[in-house]
Amino acid sequence: CLGFDILCSALVAMLSASLAVLFFPRQWSLYSGSKSTQELPRRLLNSQELSLYDGEVGSKGIYLAILGQVFDVHNGIKHYGPGGAYHFMAGKDASLAFITGDFTESGLTDDVSSLSPLQVVALFDWLLFYQRTYQTVGLVIGRFYSKSGTPTKFLLHVESLLAKGQQLKAKTEGEMLRFPACNSEWSSARGGRVWCSTKSGGVERSWTGVPRKLFHAGASGSRCVCVEDPSAAKENPNLQEYDGCSTHAVSCSLVE
Ligand code: HEM
After folding, report:
1. Which parts pass through the membrane (predicted)?
2. Both 77 and 129 in a single domain?
């Protein structure tokens, strides 16, 4: 390629892009988002190789892995470099700590088997953050990817938790819109009060609604939600009126 630098780099880029698609087809379709071909993962590193990129003096650079995907976080040197608040995440895959906030040695692990489906959703949000913010380097051979860069059974399991978590999240968000939380206040003189308005529970809407106690199967206690249709609420066994408060009242005083 000597003397034909531009043509040569274009060819190399095209070749590596097609190789990357060949070797990481699933990767591409699952988590690529709006990534360009230059950002496709290229390298396979083992954890020992990854540890050489911890940003310490004499290290090869600053990489960090999450869910087995490696990113060059050099642009975030203030966070990940020596003295940075998140330096301990450099040179390793500490996926679990992104959710637990446990930055001790035992907490900085890629074993995410203790996470709930909703926590797995939050972890993939972090993955998306790194994909959008930093340059992709490749994959770590180990818990999430095999020596050939294919997803392990463990990753497939985590992905099934992700799907479950996304469904749960959608359901919860739907419920939050249908039953937004009430406004509430308490004073020693007047005691507690819950009420509904066209904005409560972080939801702006065209209806005011009436306060009801919402019970969840398997959970103890209830929370106050605003319900649009007072009569329909009567048919829902999980919704209960407040004692001493009329069916159509938008505000209820809490009786001890
Ligand atoms: C589970 C707990 C937490 C995790 C895993 C976490 C992780 C991170 C990471 C990885 C970054 C760097 C992001 C980047 O590359 O730009 C960051 C930035 C930051 N974190 Fe946290 N964090 C946690 C809790 C907190 C808490 C409790 C606070 C505040 C009291 C906080 C304050 C900040 C701030 C202010 C930045 C941005 C700093 C800047 O841009 O200069 N974090 N966090």
Report:
1. 6-25
2. yes
Query: Is residue 28 within 6 Å of ligand 1 at its C-beta?
Result: no
Residues 53 and 149 in one domain: yes
- Interval 67-76 mean pLDDT: 98
What's the 224 CA to ligand 1 centre distance in angstroms? 32
With residue 239 as reference, give the H or E element that holds it: strand 239-240
For the residues 215-237, what does the mean pLDDT come to? 88
- What whole-number percentage of the chain has pLDDT above 70? 84
Residue nearest to atom 36 of ligand 1 (CA): 79
Looking at ligand 1, which atom is closest to the CA of residue 130? 15
Quick: pLDDT tens for 17-68: 333 333 333 333 344 343 444 445 579 999 999 999 999 999 999 999 999 9
> Who contacts 6 (Cβ-Cβ below 8 Å, separation ≥6)?
none
Confidence (pLDDT) at 15: 35
- What pLDDT, in 10s, does the model give residues 144-182? 999 999 999 999 999 999 999 999 999 988 888 999 999
Q: Which ligand 1 atom sits closest to the C-alpha of 101?
A: 1
User: Are residues 184 and 142 in contact, defined by beta-carbon separation less than 8 angstroms?
Assistant: no
Give the closest residue (by CA) to ligand 1 atom 14: 76
Range of the domain at 101: 5-173
CA distances, 64 to each of 31, 91, 127 (Å): 17, 5, 11
Asked if residue 79 has its Cβ within 6 Å of ligand 1, the reply is: yes
User: What is the whole-number distance in angstroms between the Cα of residue 229 and the centre of ligand 1?
Assistant: 42
Q: What sign does the dihedral 207-118-50-42 (CA atoms) show?
A: negative
For residues 109 and 194, membership in a common domain is answered with: no
